[in-house]
Amino acid sequence: MSDENLSTERLPELAKEIRDLLERQRLVEQLVLKQDSLPERHDLVETLVHKQHLSRLSAKLESLHAADIARILELLPLQDRLVVWDLVKAHMDGDVLLEVSDAVRESLIDAMDTHELVAATEQLGTDEIADLAPDLPDEVVQGIYKTLNPEEREQLRIALSYPEDSVGAHMDFEMVSVREDVTVEVVLRYLRRLRELPDHTDKLFVVDREEHLRGVLPLNTLLVSDLDTEVGAIMDADPKRFSPDGEAREAAEAFERYDLISAPVLDADGVLIGRVTVAAIVDFIKDRQDIERLSQGGLRVEEDIFASVWNSLKNRGPWLGLNLITALIASRVIGLFEGAIEQLVALAALMPIVAGMGGNIGNQTITMIVRALATGQLHEQDIRNLYIKETKLALINGVFWGGMLALVTFLLYRDAALGGVMMLAVTLNFLLAAAMGVTIPVMRARFKRDPALGSSVLITAITDSGGFFIFLGLATLFLLH
Amino acid sequence: MSDENLSTERLPELAKEIRDLLERQRLVEQLVLKQDSLPERHDLVETLVHKQHLSRLSAKLESLHAADIARILELLPLQDRLVVWDLVKAHMDGDVLLEVSDAVRESLIDAMDTHELVAATEQLGTDEIADLAPDLPDEVVQGIYKTLNPEEREQLRIALSYPEDSVGAHMDFEMVSVREDVTVEVVLRYLRRLRELPDHTDKLFVVDREEHLRGVLPLNTLLVSDLDTEVGAIMDADPKRFSPDGEAREAAEAFERYDLISAPVLDADGVLIGRVTVAAIVDFIKDRQDIERLSQGGLRVEEDIFASVWNSLKNRGPWLGLNLITALIASRVIGLFEGAIEQLVALAALMPIVAGMGGNIGNQTITMIVRALATGQLHEQDIRNLYIKETKLALINGVFWGGMLALVTFLLYRDAALGGVMMLAVTLNFLLAAAMGVTIPVMRARFKRDPALGSSVLITAITDSGGFFIFLGLATLFLLH
Asked: What pLDDT, on a 0 to 100 scale, did the predictor assign at position A54?
């Protein structure tokens, strides 16, 4: 039993060894280039050593799982990555491409020609080819198409026809199906004739002659049943199943709630067209989590940490541009009250507090609502109650935190009226934040947009400009003459 | 085939029906209370209708999966929730408690007495009891302990002994194991003698007499092998396996990368002590995702949307308090420069732009680094390169966006020097943001803290105060006399 299995933590170490090896190699090569007056023999020795290292590395790579090779490639800077990618055996190429992150996949595909790319997909299922297809050049996709048989072409067409967030885009076609009128013994004999079962086969699909699903037969049931029992008597006739047009998010929730491993996908007539496995669902959950994190951090797509400065600029630009606009608007709001600030300069020091705390309250409300929307926990009838509850919370928080700030303000500036304006402004901005914190995600959901994306930017823009306006406006009304 | 299986979307509708039903019921009861002068017969009729409704509801609930009942309970306001909870059959109580969210679980447990709670756990495995235990009153846990046999007590002790983020806390004990010197036929006969197999049994564990793991036998291999083959000849002798002290996060990554359904957990001597299933891993991934989302939104724990205002206040208070402190610090930084603002009031309008855009850059950098840290993509040797790359990015972005802002500033205020200060301040704050954006998560990771939590608050605090200081300081140096 090798240690490697106990931890994937060893991969970074392996990647580091590879980097050090290639670094030394390059140093030696530079030395050789500089001293080309050296006797040829020395040169030859170096080349041999190089080849030896690379072939040992190549053997090492072959012993690894495609997912591990993918991870090592992600861990290497571009130059080293391409050296290692060349060493990966061609029959692994497809699996590795499937496993690497989008950014790294792009760099690998760029380094391959059409012929290599077509060859790389030979070992893949049609659902896997469909996953890669959007990243491949057109002529490669056409080349792959020619290598498929008619049934596979049809599967590829189906897999490519569903949008990314539908169940259809995440299904595969590796089903084992049986008839309901055969016995357990016949099924067992049938299975033994197959050389192997597809990954994640936890159940057989029971279909009639027209491929309508009649039920499913879990392997766990099959294994504990008497040999002469008929499939129809022990199958689950009412299993969890999905439509290819259903939302992948909903399927993920069902897999989580009902602890599914695989489930049939049926068309509108109840014909079995594919299956979804928990592996596809786990990938989907992780991908969504990633998208959400990136968007909240102000990045468009994931970034290869070895990406060029130029690629990073393109990735981060849009959010900075958006931020520039919202910041300019807030700045113009302040500009409206320059007269007030000139008269009472303390306003300039206090106004960011009002804006910042409003943003905090708004983000809290939005997080809670987005979560409730995601779990379907919000009914129309609750929304009114939510406004009432959040308003109450904003009022209590406003009076409490606003009161604290009023006190601090009084201690700093010895101005009771300024403290009062502070408290009132904080409370009003909290109310604005609470109202918009409910409204923004509810509206986005109603217009079928993902309420999690972009809501935070919007609420912060509103509580900033709103906070400045409320605070400086109140100050103008009550403090100035 | 009922429609219910096609979509979990019907649950919110069902919850709404229940709420409407209970609402009507309460209206009728109020009516009856008010008009207690009515003939007794009418009263009786109403009571009968009520009972009929509730018993129909009870029957409906019994046909649902525990996870679905849990979801309906989450969808109901407290009052209705407790009515429905009373209708749930006692033998389902434990499974439902396992499935509901933490906040709702608390409200259900509060409504039960010790006897009911002990009874509720009767159908649960020891790993499931361990999941519930932290939420149960002490006397209940002691009561449960008394109902267990010595082996179960030992399992419960083991399950409770591992910290939440270790593999041990997520394992269960439902393994089927076989010896390596028996034939496939014997194994199949042995399995048929069991009444059922545990959920998520995709492989049998092959152990010796001392329970050392010798390998695993996937059901998929078992089913396609000849009846007279010995287990030892077809088992996987080097399967992915975990240590109970390993990090759950790492196990989750391995499950995702290698598409595992279940995997053995071994102690230091290689003795099989439990297994981890993909169901536990999916729950773990979702929980972590939740914690991250809540923390980023400034909430301590998940909030039942029907939670009392008081509970919400407690949940949201700490972040508001933290925000108050960071905002006050930023405010005092501005306070240092009140003289400058008095002389040139445009500074007050422009300073939030410098602070805000710095925060945006800082958050982008942090998101990227946290992600690279989470996937183990960062080596020591890369960190220096990262500083260089992020510094370059900050410089280019600073000159570009700072230049845009300088232009806008000039157009607004007709002051070229002010524009120049703006550009310089934006660039310097971007450099500060980039440096801290790398340093904060790297430091947190080095001190073994989760780099994802709290980093965003910290960077924003730094870029706010830093941005104000840099901008107002430069203005004082270059613009004032």
From this structure: 75
A76-127: per-residue pLDDT in tens?
888 888 888 888 888 888 889 988 888 888 888 888 888 888 888 888 888 8
* Phi, then psi, of A36 in degrees rounded to 5: -70, 0
Interacting residues of B472 by C-beta distance below 8 A, sequence separation 6+: B333, B334, B336, B337, B340, B341, B347, B351
Would you say how long chain B is, in residues? 481
Are the beta carbons of B330 and A65 separated by less than 8 Å? no
Backbone angles phi, psi at A306, to 5 degrees: -95, 10
Residue of A191, A225, A367 with shortest CB distance to B298: A367
Q: Name the residue facing A296 among B15, B74, B296 (closest C-beta).
A: B296
- pLDDT value at residue B267: 92
Q: What is the ipTM of this complex?
A: 0.78
A393/B312 Cβ within 8 A: yes
Q: Between chains, do B67 and A196 touch, taking CB under 8 Å as contact?
A: no
Per-residue pLDDT band for A4 (boundaries 50, 70, 90) equals: very low
Q: Answer whether A260's CB lies under 8 Å from B200's CB.
A: no
* Residue contact A305–B382, C-beta within 8 A: yes
- List CB contacts (< 8 A) between B240 and chain A: 5
Nearest to A469 by CA among A340, A323, A320, A325: A340
What is the reported pLDDT for B474? 92
Q: Is the C-alpha dihedral spanning A384, A390, A392, A394 positive or negative?
A: negative
pLDDT per residue as tens digits for the range B237-263: 999 999 999 989 889 988 988 889 999
Distance CA B401, CA B419 (A): 12
Spatial separation of the C-alpha atoms in residues B114 and B116, rounded to whole Å = 6
Q: What is the pLDDT of residue B120?
A: 86
User: Which of left, alpha, beta for A116 (phi over 0: left; psi -120 to 50: alpha)?
Assistant: alpha
HSE (side-chain half, CA atoms, 13 Å) at A134 = 11
Record: contact A195-B224, CB cut-off 8 A: yes
- Chain B contact set for A71 (CB, 8 A): 257, 375-376
Q: What SS3 string covers B211-229?
A: CEEEEEEEHHHHHHCCCCC
pLDDT in tens, A304-348: 667 777 777 887 888 888 888 888 888 888 888 888 888 888 888
Contacts of A410 (CB under 8 A, 6+ apart): A416, A418, A419
The residue-averaged pLDDT of B287-301 equals 76
Written in H, E and C, the secondary structure of B108-175 is HHHCCCHHHHHHHCCCCCHHHHHHHHHHCCHHHHHHHHHHCCHHHHHHHHHHHHCCCCEHHHHCECCC
Q: State what percent of residues in chain B have pLDDT above 90.
A: 30
Burial letters for A416-434: b for 16+ Cβ neighbours within 10 Å, e otherwise?
eebbbbbbbbbbbbbbbbb
* Main-chain dihedrals φ then ψ at residue A276, nearest 5 degrees: -115, 140
CB contact under 8 Å between B5 and A345, yes or no, is no
Pick from A138, A159, A24, A8: nearest CA to A71? A8
Pull the structure tokens for residue A99: 């496993």
Under 8 Å between Cβ of B170 and B280: yes
Which of B195, B237, B375 faces A224 most closely, judged by CB atoms? B195
